[in-house]
Amino acid sequence: MRMWDSIHADSRRGHHGHPQLAGKAPCLVVALRPLRPEGLLHRSFLTNSTIWRTYMMSPAKEFDVIDVNLAQLKQRIPLLEYLQGRNWKARRVGNQLEFVGLCPLHGETNPSFYVNSHKNLFYCHGCGRGGDLIRFVQLSLHLSFPQALAHLRRQLKPTSNSDLLERTAAFYQLTLHRHPEAVQYLAQRGLHDPAVIEKLAIGYAPGGVLRRHLCALGYPLEALLQTGLLDAGGRDAFCRRVIFPCRQHGKIVNLYGRSIGAAFPHRLLPHPKGGLFAWDSVARHSAIILVEGLFDLAVLWQAGFHNTTCAFGTHLTPEQWVQLSHCPGRLVYIAFDQDANQAGPQAARDLARRLRGAGSAARLVCLPQGFDPNSYFVQGAVAPDFATCLEQAQPL
């Protein structure tokens, strides 16, 4: 039986030996090299957290010229996928995670080139060379380490915003229960049912961890900045906020963050906020409850009113208006905040007029003065109390 050659990092400071770095201060150099067959031992392979960093310093300033997380390339361009994309033919061997085929690095007639798809490493028993994806590109294309990185970066598929937001929302969802302050905030807002919290995929952004997590999954920093997940300073844009993913046609189109501290309460990514919240599931109902905020919606779902949707305020976007009004005969209960300044009730009356003109029936839900659905339940109301409010709702 064969054994995998181990690949190890030879870290040397001050002896870079590269002509382009002549005259520069010493830098950290990481070299990947296979051991000789007679030196084979059971050793650990490079992990996905291996980071290549090269620093070049001038007398005046320090430049961070290369800061590439190898996991980005290993996860987004698996070695086996890269080889198969270049017509490498192989068969499974051993534990089904390894493949063998003819070596692309030298001519041979008997297959001796092995790939471990789990560890993302290769080794050829014929020519004695081995390494990871970057090392293979170096050897096969005769490139330097930086040139190989540049080549692979050009192979990366464009980052999908939807995929990036899915990963972000999943991470925030896992983070929620690790932070008691977030769970306590939900309880203060009357939200305590784990099933509802799970159904709404509510999460928490503690700040300071998202960038590292997403970069380790292979997402470039530029994508995080362009999406708005990080601010211009590279910090988590949703720091110390409870997160609600906003879906449309099954895909996340935005994230809503509610501050649990002193920051401005509401935040969305700088994208269109999409349609009415959870419309894919709410649209099938013949009677709909429309509220302003997501915590209004959350406590109503918790109380069993799953026909509730949210417009993120009182002013509907054109897309939200089409969704709400496209079904003549639908009954819409408008349960906006009962503001002391009458902004909520006035907006509800204006919307009821528009709906009536579009052929839909509207009812104005009258909560006690100063309350919105969320605060109504926080102050002790239960499902039958709100059901009474719906029964007493009046047309314009």
SSE map:
Elements: E1 7-13, E2 28-34, E3 51-57, E4 62-69, H1 70-76, H2 79-84, E5 91-93, E6 98-101, E7 113-116, E8 121-124, E9 130-131, H3 133-141, H4 145-155, H5 161-176, H6 180-188, H7 194-199, E10 203-205, H8 210-216, H9 221-227, E11 241-248, E12 251-259, E13 266-268, H10 279-282, E14 287-291, H11 294-302, E15 308-310, H12 318-325, E16 331-334, H13 343-357, E17 361-364, H14 373-378, H15 383-391
Parallel strand pairs: 14-15, 14-16, 16-17
Antiparallel strand pairs: 1-2, 3-4, 5-6, 6-7, 7-8, 8-9, 10-11, 11-12, 12-13
Helix pairs in contact: 3-4
Structure overview:
This protein is of the alpha+beta class and 396 residues long. The protein has helices at residues 70-76, 79-84, 133-141, 145-155, 161-176, 180-188, 194-199, 210-216, 221-227, 279-282, 294-302, 318-325, 343-357, 373-378, 383-391, and strands at 7-13, 28-34, 51-57, 62-69, 91-93, 98-101, 113-116, 121-124, 130-131, 203-205, 241-248, 251-259, 266-268, 287-291, 308-310, 331-334, 361-364. The chain starts with 6 loop residues before the first strand and ends in a 5-residue tail after the last helix. 32% of the residues are buried. Residues 7-68 have low confidence and may be disordered.
The amount of helix comes to 25-40%
Q: Spans with pLDDT under 50 lasting ≥5 residues? A: 7-68
Cα radius of gyration in angstroms = 29 Å
Q: What is the structural class?
A: alpha+beta
**Would you tell me the overall average pLDDT?**
82
Shape category: elongated
Number of strands: 17
Distance between the termini: 83 Å
Beta-strand level of the residues, as a percent range? 15-25%
Counted by DSSP, the helix tally is 15
Write out the strand line-up for the largest beta sheet, numbering strands in chain order. Answer: 5-6-7-8-9
